[in-house]
Amino acid sequence: MNKSQxxxxxxxxxxxxxxxALFRIQAGQxxxxxxxHRLEVDELVAAKLSGGWKLTRAGxxxxxxxx
Length: 67
Description:
single chain, two-stranded antiparallel ribbon, mainly alpha, 2 strands
């Protein structure tokens, strides 16, 4: 877990596949497990209680910045 509400994800720029996966997760569409796992480790997505995945605050920010 990140230690700050200002955590913005990894210091590196996201790949095109990762940005595409963030779009798909936001739309409720499935993404490949390996990419979803990478986004989860980077704390850009989190599991929803009702099942599925959602963007974290950092994920929303990174998607908006496309970085």
